[in-house]
Give the backbone structure.
Amino acid sequence: MFIDTHCHLEDENFSEDRAEVLERAKSAGVEKIINFGSTFQSSVAVSELAKNFSELYAGVGIHPEEIDDFDEKTCARLAALAAEKKIVAVGEIGLDYHWEKDSERRLIQQKIFIEQLDLARQMKLPVCVHDREAHGDTLKILQAEGKNLRGVLHCYSGSLETAREVWKLGWFIGVDGPLTFKNSAKLPEVVKAAPRDMILIETDAPYLAPVPYRGKRNEPAYVVEVAKKLAELRGETLEEVAAYTTANAKNLYEIF
Ligand code: NI
C-alpha cells in the first residue's frame, strides 16, 4: 500500500475523469491521497473532495504564489475549514523565490507564511511547506517560528546540508517525480542519506509526472514510480519503501 501525500486533484485537469484517476490509484495500491489547496477557493474544493471520497484527505492554505488571495480574514476562514473532519494539514504554504523576484513581495510571502504557521499551531495540525529556491529563508523561518510544529518540505529540492537541518527539526522531506529525471541534481544523494523515518512520497499531480510519464499529466497511481526509484537508490525492496513511507505519512498526518 502507498499513500500519495501531496496532490491537487481539485485541479480542472481532472474534471473529466477524476473517478477513473481514483480507480487507477486504487489498482496501483495507492490507498490514500492528500490534496492541498493553494488559494482559499481551492482549499474549499479539496475539503469538498475529502467529504465525497473516502480515500481522500486534505490540507488547506494559501500558496506563496497566491499571496494576493490572502487578507486579514483569511486565517479565520482557513481555521473554520481546518476544523472539519479529514482536514489533516495546513498547506501548501511557504516561499517561492523562483517566480517572485521582488524583495518586498518576498517579505510579504514570509509574513503570510509565518501567520499560517501560527494557524497550524493553533489548529494542532502539521504543515506542508512549498520551498522553491528559498531554502535559506525557509529553514530560518522554520527554525525561528516552527516551535511545536511538525511537517514536511514538500517536493524537496535543497541540498543534503539543508536536509540534515530539516531532519534535525524532526521534519520530513517529500520526494516527487524529479527523483526519476536524468537531471535530478542533488536529490539522489539526499534520499540515499535520508533516515527511513524522514521520507514521504508524493506526486504533486497534475504536475511533475515521473519517468516514464514525464511531460504528461501526473496522477496518484504514478507515486509508485517514485517509490521504485527510492528502492533502487537506497538498495531496498519496493515493499520496504511502501511500508515505511506509508507509516511515515500516517504518523505525520494522523490518518488511519
Ligand atoms: Ni503542490
In short: The pocket of nickel (II) ion is lined by residues 6, 8, 36, 92, 204 (CB under 6 Å). The radius of gyration is 17 Å. The chain has nine helices and eight strands.
